[in-house]
Amino acid sequence: MALNRTERRAHPRRAYFQLIKYVLNLDTLDRIFRGFTINISSSGLRLYTFNNLLTEGQEVTVISSLAGFQSSPKGTVRWINRLYDNTYEIGLEFA
Known about the structure:
The protein is mainly β. It has a single domain, classed as Thrombin, subunit H (Beta Barrel). The protein has one helix and six strands. The chain has a six-stranded antiparallel beta barrel. Strand 2 and strand 3 (44-49) form a beta hairpin. The longest helix is centred in the N-terminal third of the chain and has 4 residues, at 5-8. The chain is globular.
């Protein structure tokens, strides 16, 4: 029996809808991107974004405030699903 994403998660997720900002390089804040969180846990989040600049394994830093986090969490893109022409669903695992 194959495992689905829910069974592989280390921590339970909860619905969390928020517009967030993130950067690919914290040293250069000249390119700030936006997306919408769908759910979140202490180990990661699911995000909808409207650009295809992210790749699996890429590091990103969320610069928006997130409930339950004291600072800007850094994470790694674990998976990407293209939903529509310019809409992507991203799985981000926090470091």
